[in-house]
Amino acid sequence: MGPGVLRHQNAPDTGFYQVLLMPREAPRDTDGDGLDDVFELERPESLNPLDPADAGRPAPGAGGKTWLELYTELRAPLTTVADMSPFQNEDGVAVTREAVFRLTRPLAPDALLTVSNVHATFGGRRILGRVEISADRQAVTYFPTENLPASARVRVTFDPGDARDDLGRRLDLAGSGVSWQRGPRGLLTR
Ligand SMILES: [Ca+2]
Questions:
Q1: 104-122 as b/e, with b when 16 or more CB fall inside 10 Å?
Q2: What domain count does the chain have?
Q3: CA 40 to mean position of chain CA atoms
Q4: 91: containing domain
Q5: Is residue 90 situated within a structural domain?
Q6: Of 2, 98, 99, 166, which sits with the fewest C-beta atoms within 10 Å of its C-beta?
Q7: pTM value surpassing 0.90
Q8: What distance in angstroms lies between residue 7's CA and the mean position of ligand 1's atoms?
Q9: Are 113 and 100 in contact, with CB atoms under 8 Å apart?
Q10: Domain boundary at 35, 53, 75, which?
């Protein structure tokens, strides 16, 4: 915002204004509607940091979501892997065991993952397998379908590519993968 002049017509002489310089990184929520003041000031056509009623109105182009819902989503941490199975240092994992990646949020309804996104390697080459997304769209499972030696060390890698989460954002899981080796003590690294 550029410089400007604030003028209060017919201002009473019983008070005064105090102007505070607020850092953009730590804005207040002056009207208490859940939207911070900077977010509201950046959208003067729709929002007013002194009007708590605007947060419940639908945000244009947001599929019916309110401004508060949109604001909350925009600030949600990017979706990543919450946990993986087999987990690190899990013992005695069968080389035929499936690998499950559980995400912090669901995938978009139209997100498609194939073996180009989730695949396993053994001895430097990709093995045959298939990928399934759970009904709640929050778990991705890779099933190896190839026979492997019992001592095989298998590494499963999850590269989401352009797949989006339920908020339409790309996933944040660079380098997610799990590897294991069949034996009395599975060797697992992320
Ligand atoms: Ca407001």
A1: bbbbeeebebeeebbbbeb
A2: 2
A3: 23
A4: 81-181
A5: yes
A6: 2
A7: no
A8: 22
A9: no
A10: 75
